[in-house]
Amino acid sequence: LVRLRSRLARSQNTLGKGLLNLLSREHLDEDTWEEIEDTLLTADVGVGPTQELVERLRERVRVLGTRTPEGLRALLREELLTLVGTDLDRVVHTEGGVSAEGEERPAVVLVVGVNGTGKTTTAGKLARVLVADGKSVVLGAADTFRAAAADQLQTWGERVGARTVRGAEGGDPAAVAFEAVREGIAQTADVVLVDTAGRLHTKTGLMDELGKVKRVVEKQGPVNEVLLVLDATTGQNGLVQARVFAEAVDITGIALTKLDGSAKGGIVVAVQRELGVPVKLIGLGEGADDLAPFEPEAFVDALIS
Ligand code: GDP
Q1: Which of 293, 283, 287, 286 lies closest to 8 in space, CA to CA?
Q2: What value, to the nearest 5°, has the Cα angle with vertex 3 and ends 2 and 6?
Q3: String of b and e for 20-47 (b: at least 16 CB within 10 Å)?
Q4: Is position 140 annotated in a ligand binding site?
Q5: Which of 42, 128, 220, 234 could hold 160 in an S-S bridge, CB 3.0 to 4.6 Å?
Q6: What residues flank ligand 1, with Cβ below 6 Å?
Q7: Phi-psi region for residue 285, left (φ > 0), alpha (ψ -120 to 50) or beta?
Q8: Tell me: the pLDDT tens digits for 3-15?
């Protein structure tokens, strides 16, 4: 929590502080509520959730007559938590299974997202967390369009002690994904993490490609997680991307990167609403340790601390 707070502090808690300052004004008049709305919108919370939050806060402040700083902070904390959601399944599911033939199966996690969002870095960091948890991991470099991506993933693999399966440059991403899972089964690995290509050249191209990767992988068993990596600094653009990916493949969780460099933490709320899928992981920097599970309480506390 301390680390989260310090990482978010530089950018994020302008949101919480701004809201608290506004709420603490002597007169909570119409202009002040509008400023509160603007503050939330600027932080990318999104129009619908912003209106909900403001309406509820307004009503509760009016009914309860809350005016003390502690009282207002507590109300804001509660309402922000409600907005972020405290009862969503935020576990990254990495429990393998057993095939019909009684053979052990690794869990399969697909990592998808537009290039540059931090997809490969997130896959690498996640591999590190899993290995530290005592799991054996195989990495699949299915981003065959960017040779550097496979090199980058392989470097992560070497660093954390995970084998990387890669294909020829320009080769079929689905073939690499299939091969990675095959290797995972052969090695009786616990988890296979597949880094996919994120070229948004054409929507249908992406949909066909991702859909094929998933279908091909599923020939060997279920896919446990499809994590969509989104760059928090891209704001509404990120939401448009998210929609395209969600049409291409069933997303089960969101990894929100670069929260350390963005004052727009409200995107957590907006993207969950947009996709109906929980944020499970957050990226707080470029370093190997800078991936954290998303915990609503810690997040909201960091915002308003
Ligand atoms: P990909 O093209 O989506 O695979 O993106 P990369 O994993 O290559 O990351 C793109 C850039 O974003 C790299 O310079 C990463 O170090 C950086 N990056 C990734 N995650 C984070 C994060 O959480 N915070 C910050 N500040 N940078 C990040």
Answers
A1: 283
A2: 85
A3: bebbeeeebeeeebebbbebbebbbbbe
A4: no
A5: 128
A6: 113, 115-121, 149, 152, 198, 257-258, 260-261, 283-286, 290
A7: left
A8: 666 666 555 556 8
- CA of 281 from ligand 1 middle (Å) equals 14
The 10s digit of each residue's pLDDT in 131-180 is 999 999 999 999 888 879 999 999 999 999 999 999 888 889 999 999 99
ipTM score for this prediction: 0.98
Decide which of 1 and 191 is more confident.
191
Continuous segment of H or E residues that includes residue 201:
none
Closest ligand 1 atom to residue 143 Cα is 4
Per-position DSSP letters for 123-185, written without gaps between them: HHHHHHHHHHTT--EEEEEE-TT-HHHHHHHHHHHHHHT-EEEE--TT--HHHHHHHHHHHHH
User: What is the DSSP secondary structure assignment for residue 118, as one 8-state letter?
Assistant: S
Beta partners for residue 111, in sequence order: 195, 227
How far is it, in rounded angstroms, from Cα 197 to Cα 6? 33
Q: How far is the CA of 230 from the centre of ligand 1 (A)?
A: 10
How far is residue 259's CA from residue 285's CA, in Å, rounded to a whole number?
8
Integer Cα distance of 253 and 90 in angstroms: 8
Mean pLDDT over 75-93 rounds to: 95
Residue 198 counted as an annotated binding residue: yes
Q: Which of 119, 145, 268, 286 to mutate to test the pocket of ligand 1 (most atoms within 8 A of CB)?
A: 286
Contacts of 16 (CB under 8 A, 6+ apart): 76, 80, 300, 302, 303, 304, 305
| C-alpha closest to that of 258 among 278, 289, 279, 284 | 284
For the whole model, what pTM was predicted? 0.93
* Distance of alpha carbon 209 from alpha carbon 216, whole angstroms: 11
pLDDT at 262: 74
The candidate with the shortest Cα–Cα distance to 273, out of 290, 254, 297, is 254
